[in-house]
Amino acid sequence: GMGNLLKVLTREIENYPHFFLDFESKSERRSLQNYDHLISSFLCPISRNQMGNLLKVLTCTELEQGPNFFLDFENAQPTDCERDVWNQVNTVLQDSESILSGLQAYKGAGQEIRDAIQNPNDMLLQERAWNSVCPLVIRLKKFYAFSLRLEKALQSLLESLTCPPYTPMQHLEKEQALAKQFAEILHFTLRFDELKMRIPAIQNDFSYYRRTISRNRINNMNLDIENEVNNEMANRMSLFYAEATPMLKTLSNATTSFVTENKTLPLENTTDCLSTMASVCKVMLETPEYTSRFNSEDTLLFCMRVMVGVIILYDHVHPNGAFTRSSKIDMKGCIKVLKEQPADNVEGLLNALKFTTKHLNDESTPKNIKTMLQ
To answer: Which residues cross the membrane (predicted)?
Structure first.
C-alpha cells in the first residue's frame, strides 16, 4: 500500500528516479483513473513536513537530475483522450513483428548474382539472378515503406506527449498507453537495425538491381518491377539502406523535424520527455530489486533498446547533445549499465551510440565517456 509506494518514491531521490515499469504483466490491476486520482491527491497543497521527500519527487523541486516521478506502465490501456492517437499508432505497430520476421528470413541472392557476373553471356544465369533479386527488392520496399509509417506514428506520439498545457512529466503520468507505444517503437527500431547490420546481402542485392536497371541489359525480361520501384523510389531506398542504422536514422530525422516544425513548442518539452525515459530505463536496469522481477531476458533487452533509442533521439534534438556534463541524461551511468550486460546483447546498441549519435566526438564530451565507448 502507501508504505511500499513511499519506499519506492523516496529511495535515494537526490540521484535519480527509482520506480519499476512493468512491461510484462498482463493481469488486471487498478484502473488508470485511480492512479490519476492518487497522483492528483499527492499534488494538492500539503505540508512539506507531511509528505517530505515524496513531494519533492512528484513536484520536481530541489532536484538536480531532471524529472523524477512515479511512472507506471502496468495498465497501459488507452483512456478516451488517448484513444484516437493510440489506435492510429497501434495500426502501425501491429505490423512490426511481420516486418522483423521478413527481415530475419532475408537470405539474399548472393550466389545467383555471383554466377551472373562471372558468366555475363549466359542469359539463363542472368535471368535466374534477376528473378531471385526482384522479390527481394519488393520486400526491401515494404521495409522502407514501413519506416515512413513509423515516422508519422512517432511524430503523432511526440505531439501528444509534449503539447501544452501539460508538462512532459504530466503527459507521461497521464498518458501511460502512449508512453508505452513510444517505447515499443524504439524497441522495434533497435531490433530492426541490429538485424539489418548483420545482413550485408541487402545492399549487395539492391546494388545489383540498380545496376541492372540502369544498364537496361535485360530488355527481354519482365521489367514490370519498375512500376513498383521506379528510379525515384530506388534512390530513396538506396539512401535508407546505406545507413548503418536506417530505422533509427529515420526516427532521429523525424524527431528533429518535429522540433523544427513546431517552433512555438519549447524544446525542453521534447528533450525532457526523452531524458526522463532514459533515466527510467537506466534505473530499472541497474537495480537488482527491479530486474529480479523480470520474467524473461527479453524485458532486459527491451529496456536497453529503449534507453539507447531515447539517448540517440535526445542527442540529435538537443543543441548540446546527450554527452555534455550539463546533459539531463547520465551518460556514464547508461554506458556502464550496457557494458555490464553480455557482450552479444549490447554490441549493436553500443555501435548505435558510437555511429548514430551526433555529438559524441564534440570537444565538450568528457574524455572518460569517449573512452568507455571505444
So the answer is: none
pLDDT in tens, 295-346: 777 878 888 889 999 999 999 999 999 999 999 999 999 999 999 988 888 8
Q: For the whole model, what pTM was predicted?
A: 0.78
- Grid coordinates belonging to 174: 497521464
* Pairwise CA distance, residues 152 & 50, whole Å: 45
Whether the CB-CB separation of 287 and 320 falls below 8 Å is answered with no
| Per-residue model confidence as pLDDT tens digits over 46-103 | 333 333 333 333 333 333 444 344 344 445 789 899 999 999 999 999 999 999 999 9
